[in-house]
Amino acid sequence: MRHRWAQLRAGQGEGERDGYRRRGVYLLPNLITTGALFFGFYAIVAAMNGHFVAAALAVFGAFCLDTLDGQVARWTGSESEFGAQYDSLSDMVAFGVAPALVAFSWALSQLGQVGWVVTFIYMACAALRLARFNTSGDNYSFTGLASPAAAAIVASTVWLWSEALDGPATMFAAIAMAAVVAGAGLLMVSGFTYYSPKHLHVKGRVPFVTLVAVVLVFGLLLIDPPSMLLLCFTGYALSGPAVHLWRRSRGLETLAAAEEPDESDRAQATEETRNVD
What we know:
By secondary structure, the chain is mainly alpha-helical. The protein has one domain: Four Helix Bundle (Hemerythrin (Met), subunit A) (Up-down Bundle). It has eleven helices and two strands. The protein has helices at about 1-25, 25-50, 50-75, 80-105, 115-135, 145-165, 170-190, 210-225, 225-250, 250-260, 265-275; strands at about 140-145, 195.
C-alpha cells in the first residue's frame, strides 16, 4: 500500500512538472521582446525630459529588436502563441504610444486640442493596425503600413527637425509634424498593400547591383542618419499608394477585386470545410 502511494505521489509530481513545463515560456525571443518594450518606455521618459534625439534613438532601438525577436523564434523553433501576443503588446507601446508621445512632447502640444487629437488618432490607428495584423494570414505582404515603419517615420522626423532647429519646435514645425503623424497613422489603417521584408531570404543569390546599393545606402546612413532614415521609410510608406495607383491605371486593381471572394463567400467556404472535416 505504501509502495502504491509512493507511485501515485510520483505520478502526481510528474504531472505537476509537466504542467509547469507547459506553462513555461521561451526565454530568448521573449527577452528580446522585453528589450523592445523597454526601449519604447525609455523613449517616453526621454521625451518627457526633453531629450528628443535620445527618444528617437530609443524608438529605432525598439525597431531593431522587433525585427530580431521573430527571427530568433523561427531560427530556434521557439515560436509560441504567448510570444506572439507579448510581441503585439510590446509593439503597441514601442510603435504606438511612444512615437505619438514623443511627437506630442516635442511639437504637437503647441497645437492645443488639435495636437492631442492627432496624437490619439495615431495611437488608435496603431492599435487597429496591430489588431488587423494579428487576425491576418498574410506573410509576404501587409495591408496598411506596418506600425514599426510608421513609428520610424515619426521618430526620424523628430530627430531631424529637433537637431535642425536646435530648440523647441516652431508653430510651422508643429503643423508639419501634425501632418506627418496623421498621415503615418492613416496609412496604417489604409487598404494599401506593402511588401513584407521579414521573409526576405538573405541566403539566396542576388544581383551584384543589389549589394552595391546596400553598401551605398549604408554609407549614406552613416553620414546623415536621420535624413536617410526619413527618406527610406517615407519612400516605403509612399510605395503603397504608388503601387495602388499604378495597378489601378493598368486595370489590375479592378481585376483583383473582381476575383477576390467577399466575406460571405469566405464564410460559406469555411463552413463547408468544417462540414467536410
